[in-house]
Write a structure and sequence with these properties.
This protein is of the alpha+beta class. Helix content is about 20%, strand content about 20%. Strand 3 and strand 4 form a beta hairpin. Helix 1 runs parallel beside helix 2. The longest helix is centred in the last third of the chain and has 12 residues. It is globular, with a radius of gyration of 13 Å.
Length: about 120
């Protein structure tokens, strides 16, 4: 069965507002798929997170007012992370990990970040 993030990954690969991150393989690895929006902000989909469907962004891009019902976790800059998250825009930065519980919520997040 496909996870929410795998569906998002397929959607984003077809969406002209998103480009696969140049430091990572298009479509991602078994664990992480990373994209750029038109402004150059990075977003990463955790393809290996199973039911948690984690979406990673730089913390300053995810204000508390952004879909407040979505569970989130601040990931401090000094906390170790998966090497697939070590792209220029995310490496050594505070990140926000968002956990949408439905495909609809996940698509709302992606839509928000695409319009930045």
């Amino acid at each position: 069965m496909s996870t929410i993030n795998k569906s998002l990954n397929a959607d984003m690969l077809r969406d002209p507002r998103w480009q696969p991150h140049p430091e990572r393989a298009a479509g991602g690895t078994k664990y992480i798929s990373t994209f750029h929006n038109r402004r150059g902000d990075a977003i990463a989909l955790d393809l290996g997170s199973g039911g948690k469907n984690a979406v990673w962004v730089a913390a300053h891009l995810a204000p508390g007012s952004l879909i407040p019902a979505i569970e989130r976790e601040l990931y401090p800059a000094d906390k170790p992370r998966n090497s697939n998250l070590n792209v220029t825009e995310l490496k050594g930065k505070a990140l926000m990990r968002l956990f949408p519980t439905s495909l609809s919520q996940a698509r709302q997040l992606v839509e928000h970040f695409a319009q930045l």
